[in-house]
Amino acid sequence: MPPFSQSSPLSTVFSPNHHKPNNHSSTNIVTIDVGGQIFQTTKQTLTLAGSNTLFSNLFNSYDQNNQIPFVDRDPDLFSILLSVLRTGNLPSKAKLFDIQDIIFEAQYYGIDHLLVQCQSNPSQFEAFNLEKSKILNLGGRDPISVIDTTQNGSVLVSHGSKITSFDWALQRKSTVLTRFAAIDSLLSLSSNVVAAGATDFSGLQIIDLDKGLLMQSLNWEHLTKSSSTVQAIGKSPEFLFTSFESGRRNSNSIMVYDVNDGFRTVSEIARNEIFGDSCIPATKLKWVPSVNLLMAAASHSGPSGVSGNIKFWDVRSGEIAWEIKEKTDCFSDVTVSDTLSAVFKLGINSGEASYIDFRRIDSNNSWNYFGGTKKPMNGKKEGLGCKIESHGNQVFCSKEGELEVCSEVLMVENGKDERVFRKNLLGRTKDVGGNRITNLGFNGSKMFVTRRDQQCVEVWESSRRGF
């Protein structure tokens, strides 16, 4: 018998009201027999699978015939896929199955794209229920320099001159070689195209990972006519931003390219021809959609300590909209959250996390420390090498080998709302500690962590969601 056929003998399991020939076409309920197990759902649920899928065939067959559709497949796997159609999420019982079996079944029914969507759904991210669930091993001995994630849930890892990509299910990996000795900046532009750069190699390279080909090389033209190395990369839906520094390290700039027009040069902002404390190259770029500004952060170590600045650029006018000057406790790492409307940093001297609220910008630009008070500095660089990233409504901080998750708690003081962030140590006892954390990445329900001197990526996810 073929996988999909019309079968009338099975109608004997129903009561007459459920399968009257002249009645079922007018009802919203659809009955399906999968491998001998009866399922009932609605026409609206089946249409969510899209046209030209087996689910749409079931829908059309049920409307046109007086018989119950029969599919010769595993009913347990069908139950999981039906739950994906109903809720948009994988049910918790999916943990009992090998994800590859679910993928093969979803491909058979033509809804594997829905699996990608539900695995990439940020609503599935449960910050306080994260635990280490999987290790993604890499080949070779090169240390991991940077990671990124794509919209379809895959993970990109640069190690040495190589870029390794893991598919959205984290089941398959592929590796391509680049022209770099080591990659310092990596940014996903689409499911198969990345931008990559290095601080010791001239030009930004646009690479097709599927074909392993260099599509384009972007360079910055400057007065010294020397090479132009990449210090940071960022993007918005319209633009690709690249922070360049001249090979002689006496000039720098941020170039703006059109991602929808072959990476055509749109403009140049933040150009500096004399190297100094006030014009150091940006080493972190991040787009802030709610205010249409580009955050460009830069720091520099000198005889008087570490200083820097965080500038927010209006890309279209080329003007600075807002600037934070860092001197007392310059950032070791900095990020910006559109969801929380704030800039977050880890102080290099104090090692403490703090923030500035977008909604309460003033001339002082004073940092508000988590917990309300700043601990005394002891002369050591407590925050050196620490990382801070935001995802959803949480902020994640690394200190050596440990992770903290920080959440906002709204407090009312003297009749005014006050923002307070509380910190919690992340992970189970067996997950805590290890080598210093070097990268944090997020996608859908997962967090990705890399550590110094380790050739692998840790996958953290909710204990109720992981496979």
Task: Please provide a written account of the structure.
This protein has a four-stranded mixed beta sheet with strand order 1-4-2-3. The protein has a four-stranded antiparallel beta sheet with strand order 5-32-31-30, with no helix packed on it. The longest helix is centred in the first third of the chain and has 13 residues, at 75-87. It has 467 residues and is mostly beta strands. The chain has helices at residues 16-19, 43-47, 54-64, 75-87, 99-109, 112-119; strands at 4-7, 29-34, 37-42, 68-71, 130-137, 144-149, 155-159, 162-166, 173-177, 185-188, 193-198, 201-208, 213-218, 228-235, 239-246, 252-258, 264-272, 284-288, 293-302, 305-314, 319-326, 331-337, 342-347, 353-357, 368-369, 387-391, 394-399, 402-413, 416-425, 437-443, 446-451, 456-462. The radius of gyration is 26 Å and the shape is globular. α4 (75-87) packs across α5 and α5 (99-109) packs across α6. The protein starts with a strand and ends in a 5-residue tail after the last strand.
Concise summary:
11% of the residues lie in helices and 45% in strands. The protein has helices at residues 16-19, 43-47, 54-64, 75-87, 99-109, 112-119; strands at residues 4-7, 29-34, 37-42, 68-71, 130-137, 144-149, 155-159, 162-166, 173-177, 185-188, 193-198, 201-208, 213-218, 228-235, 239-246, 252-258, 264-272, 284-288, 293-302, 305-314, 319-326, 331-337, 342-347, 353-357, 368-369, 387-391, 394-399, 402-413, 416-425, 437-443, 446-451, 456-462.
Report how far apart the termini are: 33 Å
What is the number of strand segments? 32
Strand order of the largest sheet: 1-4-2-3
Strand content: over 45%
Helix-strand category:
mainly beta
Poorly predicted runs are 1-24
| Rg computed from alpha carbons, rounded to a whole number of angstroms | 26 Å
